Fold Transcriptional regulator.
Amino acid sequence: MNEKSAFAERLARAMREAGYEPRPAVLEREFNLRYWGKAVTLQGVRRWLCGETLPKQEKVQVLAEWLGIEPQTLRYGEDAGLRIREARGRWEMSISGEERQVLQRYLALPVAQRKVVAQVIEAFSQAYGTAPDETGDTSEDE
């Protein structure tokens, strides 16, 4: 089964589980009630349900919120959601309280300021050769 067909099945299943009939007219109405961008056409949502196209991520987010499902689970399936949660859990356990506080402050910054901070961190990383490996550990001892 290809990615588009698998998404269509997950979307239809999520609609049924949320109490909606997985029909294009229902999907068009409910989606457009919640989406603040340009309205999606009946033909467009039919393509999602038939496995012909995939919605953009911002639309998957709206669908997921409406249907009460994690966006990554709707887009990629249950296994993807589990893998993401497991990786996040391992990562969160490995940081100290002080590091967590720094990350929270970083995330509270406006996007433009976060980009500047990220560039500074990248410059330090390159200068000191401390690129993280797959586990998040640096390649050099502190």
